[in-house]
Amino acid sequence: MSSGLKKGGTGLKLYGVLIFLFLYFPLAIVLIFSFSPTKTLVGMQGITLKWYEELFRDGGLLTAFLHTVLIGLGAVSVAIVLGVSGAFFVTRVHFPGKGVFRTLVLLPYILPGIIMGISLLIFIRNFGIRLSWFTVLLGHVSFTVPIVMFQIMSRIARMGPNYQAAAMDLGANPAQTFLYVTLPMIRTAIIGAALLAFTVSFDEIVISFFLTGSAWMTLPVYIYGMLRFGLSPKVYAISTIILGLSLILIIFMARYTGRSADVYRVGKKEAGEAA
To answer: What are the structural domains of the chain?
Structure first.
């Protein structure tokens, strides 16, 4: 029986290795291509920074990257305000059709991007609004708000109303209760939801394609346009940079949003009060 368990464990480990290879091998290929002197791995000798140099000389690509970052930050900022407010409304207020309302709120995120893109384009055209950064921002807000809202709703549901009730029993007003009790308890959920929303916004192409004007493009739409003339190695370079930034972001998230960060802040405050 023990030999059978060992075989099963070995097979499970092998399966896990294959899954990780399937997920991360393309990323490794992109990383290698970004330093390859040639456009293929055939005949690769040594490494080069040529494609990174060309990347930083490509004003159009850098501008599209900046547009994508700005749209992501703008959409996340609006989504946090609307999503947190909506999460408290849905969890704290009881009204008829609450389940249907929650489903409708989630629709912009779960519907196919082409449906949302065409619907938003028709809506915007009917109001005579020109396609620009503003229309792209509206499109990204439409699917980032549900992401933030449902992340915060899950945290509020696990938190329960007892902490807020205790704070108000001790004399805190609603604003103080939110700032000093509720907000610290949902802080990590807000940060996680913001990062997830930013990641989805950064990668979105279908809705952006329908709402982007000819003179204002996000990075995914710009790269898609480049594919018509062949895939440039500069894309490998910027993909590697984005991958590195993502890893750094994950490391900081693990350091500053974990349980140890909360314990450190509370302990430091108590120590200051004791002194």
So the answer is: 44-274 (1.10.3720.10)
